[in-house]
Amino acid sequence: MTFLIFLEKIVQINVGRPKDLEKRQQILTAAKKLFLKCGYQGSSMNQIAQEAGVTKLTVYNHFQDKANLFVCAIAATCEELISARPLNLQPDSDFNKEFIHACDLALNIINLPEAIKLELLLLELAAEQNPLAHKFYNASHLRMHAVWENFFQQAIELGFIQAEELKTLTWLIVSLLLGVRHHEVLLGIRAIPTAAEKQQIILSSIELFMLKYQKTA
Fold it and tell me: Of 6, 16, 159, 198, whose CA is between 20 and 30 Å from 174?
């Protein structure tokens, strides 16, 4: 191979990469839209290809099958919802204020239309005993739990709350914030909390949480 041919191949590769990434993103965007709208069983690779404006072969070239595409699409959706807002504490932080902020962000994410649809889709997969439900749970619920665990780890290290297993702290605050109320939202028999209702939920949840884990002198 001459140097000129070698250089030409490098140029072709470099030119192709952005297009490949662009097509991959088009496919993921189309897949997220269809999975949320039609569910897992109701979405086909043909429909996703048409929605993305690419061929079915292109979809398979980027994602080996529908199951893999589903996991990637859901993981991307959950990451977009969760990771944009890091929760960082400092030694001089007003912990109560930061705790309220963390709870507010969590409820905002949980009650987004996309998040509600994701939750219903997870229940659909679980009802079918679809093994994808476990991967979905890892990408959504466990990802959110990791954010809470990091927050509580900082709070313990800075002396804002008593030491406790991080999973225990996370399960408690998530249970207090959601409870039966969120199940009713998912069932469509209760509306998403208003701003005033959300504030009351947060304050009550933090009050109960701190009754157990308030750091005593």
Answer: 159
